[in-house]
Specification:
Elements lengths: L5 H10 L14 H4 L8 E3 L3 E4 L2 H12 L4 H15 L9 E8 L4 E7 L22 H5 L10 H12 L9 H9 L1 E2 L2 H6 L2 H7 L3 H7 L11 E2 L2 H13 L2 H4 L1 H12 L10 H5 L4 E3 L2 E5 L2 E5 L6 H12 L4 H4 L4 H21 L10 H4 L2 H8 L35 E8 L5 E9 L7 E2 L2 E2 L12 E2 L2 E2 L17 E4 L5 E6 L6 H13 L5 H6 L3 E3 L4 E4 L8 H6 L4 E4 L6 E5 L4 E5 L6 E4 L1
Parallel strand pairs: 19-20
Antiparallel strand pairs: 1-22, 2-10, 2-23, 3-4, 3-11, 4-7, 5-6, 8-9, 9-16, 10-11, 12-13, 14-15, 16-17, 17-21, 18-19, 21-22
Helix pairs in contact: 3-4, 4-6, 4-7, 7-11, 15-17, 15-19, 15-20
The structure holds glycine (GLY).
Length: 584
């Protein structure tokens, strides 16, 4: 059954009195988002694709309409996203794929995360004074560039689950690159201020984004012939055209030759890159299985902990108008992020107590720490899960900025793709090679290798993958069938965005568009953030009365989701960015 749209939901919400009789303080929902708020979820019967840009969604739609699989569509979408949303993701970065195979009912997770060069060590981001480098000082240049994983992830997934010709999947992006695409408001808005200053550090990006010294403007039509040529090479020769040969030479030369901040990436790092299949991490939640990407992502574990903690409270009957529900959501966030900071990193390098962190008895014990009346004083301490060796580690607060994108797809056979893909910060390392930007993913590592003699789990080590917060998610029902496909960009706040959408759909029967549009609340074991100019702001006095420190700020998610109901596939896209869902 289709749930009410956000506009209707908010009207009902106001009639009900909003957050305990304070509805009059709440602004209209249009103010919440600014980009076409108050739209209905898109309904379809056969297939659905939702991505962060209309051209990308259209490319995926065309592949699905021609009988391609969800994985085929994913390849086409990713290549177009690289072109039209270059600030967020692309072949110079990495990605995590959660895939549901309708024929077998299996969930598979593939890790295409970047790796640290073999020449890197724990001091990569430490300055000569023994202190960590400044964040942006570390980002701009070759030092922050990890071995990209996205091209190989696309190839491995396509080899296993694709049906269309590999080369054909590159044609939409090649055509757009050669014929030109229009600069969107979001891309144009990013070409000013400090971001613009950074992006003009190196010639290639400067010439592309600031032709004749002027920033690209909304509606400018841009061609990118070097990118079309790069895609033609990968289309013809597969990932070997990226990980060896001319492209690899160009990447390594660019990374090693940035004047002030040269990097360590070498040809051997590219030649030895591997996509890794990892066991999916699934958390039971009110009869559903919420499945996602395990370490090196903290996404599924932390979303799983938040949901596991909240299952001890009756959120379904509290509903979204309840201060209690949001207080509990913030408190669960504190506990889950505390464990994330201490225990979660690349499990090929450090022991991560994956099973223990979601152990029902452990989570139940942690839930007992939550008071309905009083906020815990942050930062709360991490717990002591079973199967842990993590007392070796010191807590870590690495940054993880929101230069990321999410794609949700279900094909006509019911196969599902949840792909979160990134070059880390906006425009990554700012280094552009052959028409695409290289990531700065290594700044997702802790800059410090240790604190007071205790090693940090997420420190830099050669060949290691930096901890991520990306949380591509697929939710299954009690029959093992897909109910929800969802994910978001947003740095370490991704986890809260995804958990909130899951609760809104599963516990409160909100339709997927309404769930995505709802104002955000987020707590990462510190202050409680409320999304500015949304209904959430009305929570501030109520949460403060329970002891929360509250910040009202932009919370810029970019969720794309598909909800499978008895009647239809419902697609939703986040109006905070430029996403679109399209189905048939
Ligand atoms: N770089 C964003 C993330 O991996 O969480």
């Amino acid at each position: 059954m289709k749930a009410p749209s956000f506009g209707i939901a908010v009207a009902a919400f106001a009639l009900l009195g909003g957050f305990q009789a304070i509805a009059q303080d709440r602004p209209a929902p249009e103010a919440a988002t600014g980009l076409g708020a108050d739209v209905d979820a898109v309904s379809a019967q056969n297939f659905m694709v939702a991505a962060a840009n209309p051209h990308a969604t259209q490319a995926g739609y065309d592949v699905l309409a021609a009988g391609g699989t969800a994985i085929d569509a994913m390849v086409a979408v990713q290549m177009v996203l690289n072109l039209v949303e270059p600030q967020s993701s692309g072949i110079g970065g990495g990605a995590f794929l959660v895939y549901y195979d309708a024929a077998t009912g299996e969930v598979t997770t593939l890790d295409g995360r970047e790796t640290a060069p073999m020449a890197a060590d724990g001091n990569l981001f430490m300055g000569p004074d023994g202190e960590p480098m400044g964040f942006w000082q570390a980002v701009v240049g070759g030092r922050s560039v990890g071995t990209p994983g996205t091209v190989m992830l696309m190839e491995v997934a396509h080899d296993r689950y694709g049906a269309s010709s590999w080369a054909d999947l590159f044609q939409p992006a090649i055509d757009l690159a050669e014929n030109g695409f229009e600069v969107t408001p979001r891309l144009a808005n990013m070409l000013n201020g400090d971001t613009a200053t950074r992006l003009q550090t190196y010639e290639a990006a400067r010439d592309y984004f600031f032709p004749n010294g002027t920033a690209l403007a909304v509606g400018d039509v841009v061609q990118n012939q070097p990118f079309a040529d790069t895609l033609r090479a990968i289309a013809a020769n597969g990932s070997s055209a990226f990980y060896s040969g001319d492209l690899a030479d160009a990447i390594v030369t660019a990374v090693q030759s940035t004047e002030e901040n040269p990097g360590l990436l070498a040809l051997d790092d590219l030649a030895s890159y591997q996509v890794i299949e990892r066991p999916p991490v699934c958390q039971a939640y009110r009869g559903y299985q919420v499945c996602g990407m395990g370490p090196p992502s903290s996404g599924a574990l932390t979303v799983g902990q938040i949901l596991g903690l909240l299952e001890h409270f009756d959120l379904p009957s509290m509903g979204p108008n309840s201060v209690d529900a949001w207080h509990l959501f913030a408190e669960a966030g504190k506990l889950a992020y505390a464990d994330r900071g201490l225990y979660m990193a690349d499990s090929d390098f450090v022991s991560v107590p994956v099973e223990g962190l979601l152990d029902p008895a452990y989570v139940s014990g942690r839930a007992q720490l939550i008071s309905l009346d009083q906020a815990a004083e942050p930062p709360v301490a991490a717990g002591d899960p079973p199967w842990r060796e993590g007392r070796l580690w010191a807590p870590d607060e690495s940054a993880e900025l929101p230069g990321t994108s999410h794609v949700s797809i279900i094909d006509a056979d019911g196969n599902a793709v949840s792909l979160t893909t990134t070059i880390e910060s906006a425009f990554g390392s700012q280094i552009m090679v052959d028409g695409f930007l290289l990531n700065n993913e290594l700044t997702d590592f802790s800059f410090r290798p240790e604190v007071d003699g205790r090693l940090i789990a997420n420190r830099v080590q050669p060949g290691k993958r930096p901890r991520s917060s990306m949380a591509p998610t697929i939710v299954l029902d009690e029959n093992g069938e897909v109910v929800l496909v969802v994910g978001s960009p947003g740095g370490s706040r991704i986890i809260g965005y995804v958990a909130q959408t899951i609760i809104a759909v599963l516990d409160w029967d909100m339709d997927i568009q309404s769930a995505i549009e709802m104002g955000h609340i987020n707590n990462r074991n510190g202050a409680t953030d409320l999304e500015i100019e949304t209904e959430m702001v009305a929570l501030q006095p109520h949460l403060e009365a329970r002891g929360h420190e509250v910040n009202v700020r932009a919370l810029n998610s970019g969720s794309q989701g598909i909800h499978v109901t008895d009647d239809a596939l419902l697609g939703g896209a986040d109006p905070r960015r430029e996403g679109v869902a399209l189905g048939d």
